[in-house]
GatB/YqeY domain-containing protein (Weissella bombi), 146 residues
Amino acid sequence: MGLLAQLTEDMKTAMKAKDKETLSVVRMVKSALSNEQINLGHDLTPEDEMTVLSREMKQRVEEMTSYQDAGRDDLAAGIQTQIDVLKKYMPEQLSEDEVEAIVKETIAQVGATSKADMGKVMGALMPKVKGKADGKMVSQKVQTLL
């Protein structure tokens, strides 16, 4: 079942259960996917869908962090609910050890020897971990291993 079909089913389920928060998040994701499809001018590939989901997740995480920094735990809790719903559609996240193994393998593949080669490594690495690992963590691993 494709992501849009899954979202439609989940939207129906949330409507029947009168789960306003889940319904709101599902509608937001469907809208973001539809907008991306219009912008690209073709049907979305699974990679395009993952890009949209990752972007939405990143926005929520940044929003929650800013609320927590401002001491607004009430608002942060609402954002956490949205993040929990979004996680259902994201692929399984890689552990730090798995990311480190992929980084080491990629460094060996591109023959990187110093921090000057970081761009080359990141360019080869990001397609492998897109949507499966946080970009900041990946970047930090590359910096430590170079």
